[in-house]
Amino acid sequence: MTDDQVLARAEGLARRLSQKGVRDNQLNLALTHLKRGRDLAATLKLLATLPGTPMAQRANKTQDQLRDMQRLVSEEVKTVRTWQDAAAILGWARRLMPSFREETETYGAGPAGGGGRNRPDRGRGGWR
User: Fold this and answer.
1) CA distances in angstroms from 27 to 5, 16, 23, 74, 84, listed in the order given
2) pLDDT tens across 21-41, in order?
3) Is the dihedral of CA 14, 95, 65, 19 positive or negative?
4) What is the Cα Rg of the chain in Å?
5) Is 79 exposed, middle or buried (0-12, 13-18, 19+ CB in 10 A)?
6) Which of 47, 101, 103, 113 suits a disulfide with 70, CB 3.0-4.6 Å?
């Protein structure tokens, strides 16, 4: 797979994940698992099980994000031949996601995480 193909696929994946509200740290779970295990099938299996884990039970939004991530990542890498190509696509998508998140926020979708680092009042007053 050429660098241009990897970047084109990563850009599309990053845009779709950002539109669904998936956070880059959620995609990082899959990327880290793939790079450590070097097994694309095992990573896709992990993605399929994540929505049912206690981590995902914190909020319905998180479950939806993990389901969307599983579906979108699976669709994107189903034709990839090696784990290295899949890791390249996921790695670039993870790097590109913040720029698409900012683009989505600019056009009225709101912050993906509901605030946090980008809150205008952050740093004022006490820390409680």
Assistant:
1) 20, 12, 7, 12, 16
2) 999 999 999 999 999 999 999
3) negative
4) 16
5) exposed
6) 47
The total number of residues written for the chain in this structure:
128
Residue 88 · residue 6 · CB < 8 Å: yes
Q: How far is CA 67 from the centre of its chain?
A: 11
> Which pLDDT tens digit goes with each residue over 104-114?
565 444 455 44
Q: Which residues of 35-66 are buried (b: 16+ CB within 10 A; e: fewer)?
A: eeeeebeebbebbeebbeeeebeeeeebbebb
Q: Which token pair is 71?
A: 């579906």
